[in-house]
Write a structure and sequence with these properties.
The complex is a heterotrimer. By secondary structure, chain A is mainly α. Chain A starts with 18 loop residues before the first strand and ends with a helix. Chain A contains 17 helices and 6 strands. The model of chain A has no long low-confidence stretch (mean pLDDT 90). In chain A, a hairpin with a 2-residue loop joins strand 4 and strand 5. In chain A, helix 9 crosses helix 11. Chain B is an alpha/beta fold. In chain B, helix 2 packs antiparallel against helix 6 and helix 3 packs across helix 6. Chain B is globular. By secondary structure, chain C is α/β, with parallel strands linked by helices. Helices cover 17% and strands 19% of the residues of chain C. Chain C has a 5-stranded mixed sheet with strand order 1-2-5-4-3. A two-stranded parallel ribbon of chain C has the order 6-7. In chain C, a hairpin with a 4-residue loop joins strand 4 and strand 5. The chains are: A mainly alpha, B alpha/beta, C alpha/beta. At the A-C interface, helix 1, helix 8, strand 4, strand 5 and strand 6 of A face strand 3 and helix 3 of C.
Chain lengths: 408, 196, 221
């Protein structure tokens, strides 16, 4: 029988030695909705092309329609693993624009909350790196302790994940006794857990073999790619917004910046772990400073700025003055100075920046979020070039990519 | 503040009578060594206690789902131990988080890849109705592309709410007639979504 | 900290002279404006100069000012000198008819996606960009959503009572503040062809209320 061709192959497919593999956007191991189209030579990645935008929600357009105090809800949903940091960053931006000076106690309370959310963020990221390298135990183990952090949030603001915490000028209410007790308990229990978590991973042969040398980047390239946060520090550059441009009285605290060398997954893991220890240190110091406060200072939880700080609801119903301020703020009768502000905080995965242009109206004229993982995800193809297919996933999870933040 | 099961420091002895939850027997007629009941009830009983969820997590609600399936809230107690990550193997599509218009066709494709019988749960405000994101880029509820069985409100819903939604899915699954998927009404429903 | 805003300003003026304008320091943040064909030269100078070393691109975005004729779009760069820890911001204005600005991708790899995002939102055409296409929105989109004339909401929604959302004939809803610009006459009604929901948007909401349960079990629970 003649070799009649029944199967028609596309032109050039015989010569083509690479395989194209589509990862995402719903692939279970992509931790969010990104698509990576990998070009594979055997199991080695020749090139990767990322597509994002699968959860674009038009935050910036939405922010142009909302008064300042309503934008807090949007910032929650950017990086939902560490939403309080985003909330506080937004309040700091507004306070910078409005010229509000917060009391020390408010700063310290904010520091406690921000460091707690840094811990919860790094906890998820590191345990998920574990999951992706085959160690599910760590994840199940530490998730239980993340619940402790969530319970503290609940006590402070009533919500677990999308916290919408605080107001321009401070907090909506003081920390309750229960909140302090829960914080006590967390600080007593957590170090042992973190220690055990580290024991599970840091010298674990399998984990080390999987992560050392996976997705490395030099400090120079990392800076050129706009890396910030733990990923940059793992590459060896010690840039931390908390130290470089201290906000919320971070200058009062003593802590170290953990720095890695090679910028690979293992270093990123270690840097995050180190940061959790440093966060514990900061929380302890802030806790002590607050306990040491005496007199009137020991009870304030917001700045005295009635023209921007939304009064408590019970006061609105019972006091004339509070009702007037409430009305003025809600109806947009308070003066918002025109101006341009850039304010940044050290978020869970890098420098979260807020570029706010106000034209004097009650809503921002333009608000732009500097979203760290949107900026550093573009380095992904460079990080995975020449790596094995199995590294593609672990690099992604160790970069701590949050889809909501990336696509805004 | 205190939760009944938090730390298993003093484990209670296994007690078959009280601590194992047994599914209720369906209605039927029984005697020595035999039991008769409707096929629908038996199938429903089996299905509802062994659902395989397919988590389709896009944003914030996905993080709450992580908490739901992890040790603290433990979705596995409801027979959903195995999270399938392949739509071909799963019965329950749990859509958690905002679905942008760019993502809409993918939700539909995942739904189409699932085998019948399949159920869909929209977790959170965004998946149910678009939530706070009434914008040009967000799909205003996944029920515009796939039929939904249970909506779970919240932004994000607490893990308890997700569990509640899951139990409602279980109720639906348990009561469903085995003929439903062949009925004209169901076919009409699918047709209205352009699914054959 | 040796480097101050004054030093930077002096050095820039000695190099570029009168071409740079609008030096300001809002909240201590040095801000200035450059002509749009000079943006790359300014950045290169800031990058290479041994004293300035602005080698970190913090942020790149655009702002739309519909009222400024001929300079509607401003591209805003935030640069950071990590050695001396000082930041600056500079803006480039361009007309909306010909929004061509040189790309910064040769200098900063991070500019790649930020420029794509800016193109996606505002339609700024970055000349020389290796891969200038939409990044967050669907490729089929025909307009640039962050420009002020375009509405926030999806115009294809039919389940809303227009009057209650300020789009209908209700007269009281007419004055809703300056930010809510009225819809443009030639603005496309359908945001993007080929998006889901556009073609298969459910018309009949009465039959849809029981979606998924086809009315058999919805009320029993």
């Amino acid at each position: 029988m003649s070799t009649e061709q029944h199967i028609k192959l596309p032109e050039g497919s015989i010569e083509k030695t690479t395989t194209t593999l589509n990862l995402g956007p719903t692939h279970p191991a992509t931790h969010g909705v990104f698509q990576n189209i990998l070009e594979l030579d055997g199991e080695r990645i020749v090139s990767a092309e990322q597509t994002v935008g699968y959860i674009h929600r038009a935050f910036e357009k939405l922010a142009e329609r909302r008064p300042l105090y309503q934008i807090t809800t949007l910032t929650d949903r950017l990086n939902y693993c560490s939403s309080p940091i985003n909330n506080m960053g937004w309040h700091l931006t507004c306070e910078k624009l409005l010229g509000v000076k917060t009391p020390k106690r408010v700063d310290y309370l904010r520091v406690i909350i921000m460091e707690l959310s840094r811990i919860s963020d790094h906890l998820i990221c590191n345990s998920v790196v574990g999951v992706d390298s085959g160690a599910f135990t760590g994840f199940l183990y530490v998730m239980q302790y993340r619940e402790l952090i969530y319970e503290i949030y609940e006590e402070v603001c009533g919500s677990r994940l999308t916290t919408n915490m605080g107001r321009i000028g401070g907090f909506e209410r003081n920390f309750t006794q229960a909140a302090w007790e829960k914080l006590d308990r967390f600080m007593a229990e957590y170090p042992a857990v973190l220690k055990e978590f580290e024991h599970l991973f840091t010298r674990n042969r399998i984990f080390m073999e999987r992560t050392i040398g996976a997705g490395p980047i030099s400090a120079e390239r990392a800076l050129n790619y706009g890396f910030t946060g733990p990923n940059l520090r793992a590459a060896g550059a010690d840039y931390d917004v908390r130290v470089h441009t201290p906000y919320s009285s971070y200058e009062d605290f003593e802590f170290d910046i953990p720095v890695g060398k090679t910028g690979d997954c293992y270093d990123r893991f270690l840097v995050r772990n180190g940061e959790m220890w440093q966060s514990m240190r900061i929380i302890e110091q802030a806790y002590r400073k607050i306990q040491d406060m005496k007199g009137a200072e020991a009870d304030v939880y917001h700045a005295d700025v009635p023209e921007y700080y939304l009064p408590a609801k019970e006061d609105v119903y019972t006091k004339m003055e509070a009702l007037i301020w409430h009305f003025k703020i809600i109806m947009g009768e308070t003066e918002i100075p025109p101006g341009e502000v850039y304010c940044s905080v050290e978020g869970g995965n890098g420098e979260v920046g807020y570029y706010l242009i106000s034209d004097g109206g009650r809503t921002p004229y333009r608000l732009h979020f500097r979203r760290p993982c949107f900026i550093y995800y573009q380095a992904y193809s460079e990080l995975t070039q020449g790596a094995m297919l199995s590294d593609a996933i672990i690099v992604m999870s160790s970069l701590n990519l949050i889809a909501g933040e990336m696509d805004a | 503040m205190a939760r009944p099961v938090r730390f298993n420091i003093h484990p209670i002895q296994a007690d078959v009578k009280d601590n194992i939850s047994l599914a209720n027997m369906p209605e039927g007629f029984g005697g020595d060594g035999f039991f008769t009941t409707k096929l629908s009830d038996v199938v429903g009983l089996a299905r509802k206690n062994s659902l395989w969820p397919m988590p389709f997590a896009t944003s914030c609600c996905g993080i709450e789902f992580m908490a739901t399936m992890a040790s603290h809230y433990d979705l596995a107690r409801f027979g959903a131990e195995r999270l399938g990550f392949s739509p071909r193997q799963c019965d329950l599509l749990m859509v958690m988080g905002t679905i942008a218009k760019k993502m809409g066709p993918i939700v539909k494709q995942v739904y189409l890849q699932m085998a019948e019988p399949r159920w869909v749960m929209a977790v959170g405000a965004c998946a149910s109705s678009g939530g706070i994101f009434d914008t040009y880029s967000v799909l205003q509820g996944i029920d515009q592309v796939v039929p939904v069985d249970v909506y779970v409100p919240g932004c994000p819903p607490r893990p308890e709410a997700i569990l509640d939604g899951f139990m409602r899915i279980q109720d639906l699954v348990g009561q469903e007639s085995i003929r439903r998927r062949n009925g004209d009404q169901y076919k009409g429903l699918l047709q209205s979504y352009g699914i054959q | 900290m040796a480097l101050t805003n004054e030093t930077i300003k002096d050095r820039l003026i000695t190099k570029f002279g009168e071409q740079l304008s609008h030096f300001e320091e809002p909240y201590g943040f040095l801000t200035f404006e450059a002509p749009k064909d000079l943006n790359l030269k300014v950045m290169q100078f800031l990058f290479d100069d041994e004293e300035l070393r602005f080698q970190f691109l913090t942020d790149l975005t655009a702002v739309h000012y519909p009222d400024q004729r001929g300079r509607e779009l401003a591209v805003v760069y935030h640069l950071h000198n990590l050695t001396d820890n000082i930041r600056l911001r500079f803006k480039v204005f361009t007309s909306i008819e010909k929004p061509d600005v040189y790309t910064a991708t040769q200098l900063y790899s991070s500019a790649n996606w930020m420029e794509r995002e800016t193109f996606d939102f505002f339609g700024v055409n970055f000349v020389g960009h290796p891969n200038l296409k939409r990044i967050l929105n669907v490729d089929e989109m025909e307009y640039f959503p962050m420009r002020k004339e375009f509405p926030l909401e999806d115009q294809t929604r039919i389940d809303k009572d227009d009057a209650m959302f300020g789009r209908g004939p209700l007269p009281a809803a007419a004055n809703r503040g300056a930010v809510e610009t009225p819809r443009h006459a030639e603005e496309p009604l359908v945001p993007a062809s080929g998006t889901p929901g556009g073609g298969q948007q459910k018309q009949d909401w009465k039959t849809d209320t029981t979606a998924g349960t086809d009315g058999t079990t919805a009320d029993k629970n």
